[in-house]
Amino acid sequence: MDKKDNTILLAVIACLLWSTAYAGIKIGLQYDTPLHFAGIRFIISGLMIFPFTVRPKLFFSMVREHWKIVFWITLLQALINYILFYLGLDLVPGALGAVIVGSQPLVTAVVAAMMHEGDKLTKRKIITIVLGITGVILISAGRQAFKFGSSIELLGVFMILGANIATATSNVLVSLKSKGMNPFVLSSASLFIGGIIIYLLSIPFEKRPAGPMPTEYWLDLIWLSFMSAFAFSLWFKLLQRPHVKVSELNLFKFIIPVVGAILSWLLVPGEKPEWLTITGMVIITASLIGFYKNGKRVPVN
To answer: Environment class of residue 6 by beta-carbon count within 10 Å: exposed (0-12), middle (13-18) or buried (19+)?
Structure first.
């Protein structure tokens, strides 16, 4: 397998793993509060990666040496992104949340163009972004035909879009500023530190769930923790490859809303396909495929 195929395969694997998050989070939130659930998940994720990084002494030395990038990735990716994401997803159906997150490659293209000189925003990309945002507006405008969603649902939509901006910014920073740092150390440290902070925030702001959790909750938590540990480590490694453009790599995330929506419909009670959601999903997916075809090259190493 050549390097190009390797990058594509690894990107697809990471996106397939992420696509399970929406149904998994909705299942977990049936038993737990958003911040408490997210905090425990990321603490476990960071600990899962730790044994596969470097020697403990070198680990902490690397974190101290690259503390700025660790700080920004923790703030943007683990805190702002996931606090908004969990709170937003708690307000909208899992399938709807999965499709809205499908706009992330479009948001990333704009952020990358603003922050990275080698990742310009062309006219054809702008057209694709307009189509993608149209799909997001269509989805958020109504879960029932020709009717706007409730104000609570719209708030959830804006929270998830804010999470998209935060994660897009963190992706560009990893690509530009993290060279020389082990990507597994970066993912382990940022997830663990972010998880601790989110967990501490949950104590004053959320009411602790009562009673012991069922087996379904713990299996769901373990899977989501593993998924984050594996997918983020893999993604950070790909972002560090010298010839990979952030906007092009993120195009593979068009897999996420499609698979995520299907899993939500299959696994989450009360979730079912609605034609406005399906239409928005088709528009977003088509815009991302068009964006991919308009790119000058596929991300390679």
So the answer is: middle
Decide: 254 and 197 in contact? Cβ < 8 Å: no
Please indicate, yes or no, if residue 17 is contained in any of the structural domains.
Answer: yes
168, part of any domain: yes
Number of domains in the chain: 1
User: How many other C-beta atoms can be found within 10 angstroms of the C-beta atom of residue 266?
Assistant: 9
The answer to the question of residue 301 being in a domain is no
**Assigned token pair, 272:** 């079912």
**Separation CA 273–CA 286 (nearest Å):** 18
CA atoms of 242 and 103, how far apart (whole Å): 25
Contact present, 141 and 279 (Cβ < 8 Å): no
Return the CA Rg of the chain.
18
Could you tell me if 139 and 96 are in contact, meaning their C-beta atoms sit under 8 angstroms apart? yes
Q: Domain range spanning residue 82?
A: 3-294
Tokens 């996106």 belong to 15
pTM: 0.79
Among residues 219, 221, 240, which one has the least CA distance to residue 229? 221
Q: What region does 291 belong to: left with phi over 0, alpha with psi -120 to 50, or beta?
A: alpha
How many alpha carbons fall within 13 Å on the CB side of residue 38?
A: 30
- Tokens 């104590």 — which residue? 203
The span from the CA of 6 to the CA of 241, in Å, is: 12
Which of 53, 18, 69, 29 has its CA nearest to residue 256? Answer: 18
Indicate whether 55 belongs to any domain.
Answer: yes
Nearest to 75 by CA among 197, 164, 162: 197
pLDDT digits (tens, 9 = 90+) for 102-142: 778 778 888 888 888 777 777 777 777 777 777 766 665 54
Write out pLDDT tens, residues 205-237. Answer: 888 777 788 999 999 999 999 999 999 999 999
Question: In DSSP terms, which residues pair with 144 in a beta bridge?
Answer: 147
